[in-house]
Write a structure and sequence with these properties.
The complex is a heterodimer of chains A (112) and B (114).
Chain A lengths: L4 E3 L2 E5 L4 E6 L6 E7 L5 E8 L4 E4 L2 E6 L4 E6 L8 E7 L9 E2 L3 E6 L1
Parallel strand pairs in A: 2-11
Antiparallel strand pairs in A: 1-3, 3-8, 4-5, 4-9, 6-7, 7-8, 9-10, 9-11
Chain B lengths: L4 E3 L2 E4 L5 E6 L6 E8 L3 E9 L2 E5 L6 E5 L5 E5 L8 E8 L9 E2 L3 E5 L1
Parallel strand pairs in B: 2-11
Antiparallel strand pairs in B: 1-3, 3-8, 4-5, 4-9, 5-6, 7-8, 9-10, 9-11
Classes of the chains: A mainly beta (112), B mainly beta (114).
């Protein structure tokens, strides 16, 4: 079963706008990660935020984590057409062993 | 390029058949993870090997098996294939024995069962 659930499932914005994706999860975590997947391609790691961190930045990416609400958000600022992809959050919960579990993703379309 | 190599990229086979997917991890990585991605189930963790030993097991069917060889490459064997096994199968690797850090993904093997 999925640990993380992204919201919204799909998002369409104009180039230059900001895109915000949310992720909720169920169990305790060490870290939360965000990955990007271009259509039919492999996943690429974007950013990792530790459970004791509240916010992290990397270039145009900003990730927040609220462990009390078991939720995270990914903000992409000044979006570009090349940002069009699916974005997944992944959590490393314990299920008898540590497993990296992915949500179903948010499909982002950035219109030029 | 993640450094993780998966073969074959595409595979078409019939129900009841058996296939083997191969993964070479990034140089220096000791862990290999297998994931299945389908439209209805999303990305499902199947199994992890670390330095030749099974480390974690997820939603892997009994018809599926995997192993990691001394040179650290891994194979995922899928047998008695069903239509519902059609999916993208990803391999990922990491240095650590657990997935609490970044995983490096291959480009996947797309399996179509007819």
């Amino acid at each position: 079963s999925q640990q993380g659930e992204e919201d919204p499932q799909a998002l369409s914005i104009q180039e230059g706008e900001n895109a915000t994706m949310n992720c909720s999860y169920k169990t305790s975590i060490n870290n939360l990660q965000w990955y990007r997947q271009n259509s039919g391609r492999g996943l690429v790691h974007l950013i990792l935020i530790r459970s004791n961190e509240r916010e992290k930045h990397s270039g145009r990416l900003r990730v927040t984590l609220d462990t009390s609400k078991k939720s995270s958000s990914l903000l992409i600022t000044a979006s570009r057409a090349a940002d069009t992809a699916s974005y997944f959050c992944a959590t490393d919960g314990w299920a008898g062993s540590y497993q990296l579990t992915f949500g179903k993703g948010t499909k982002l379309s950035v219109i030029p | 390029d993640s450094g993780v190599t998966q073969t074959p990229k595409h595979l078409i086979t019939a129900t009841g058949q058996r296939v083997t997917l191969r993964c070479s991890p990034r140089s220096g990585d000791l862990s290999v993870y297998w994931y299945q991605q389908s439209l209805d189930q999303g990305l499902q963790f199947l199994i992890q090997y670390y330095n030749g030993e099974e480390r974690a097991k997820g939603n892997i069917l009994e018809r599926f098996s995997a192993q990691q060889f001394p040179d650290l490459h891994s194979e995922l064997n899928l047998s008695s294939l069903e239509l519902g096994d059609s999916a993208l199968y990803f391999c990922a690797s990491s240095y650590r024995d657990n997935p609490t850090g970044e995983l490096f993904f291959g480009e996947g093997s797309r399996l179509t069962v007819l």
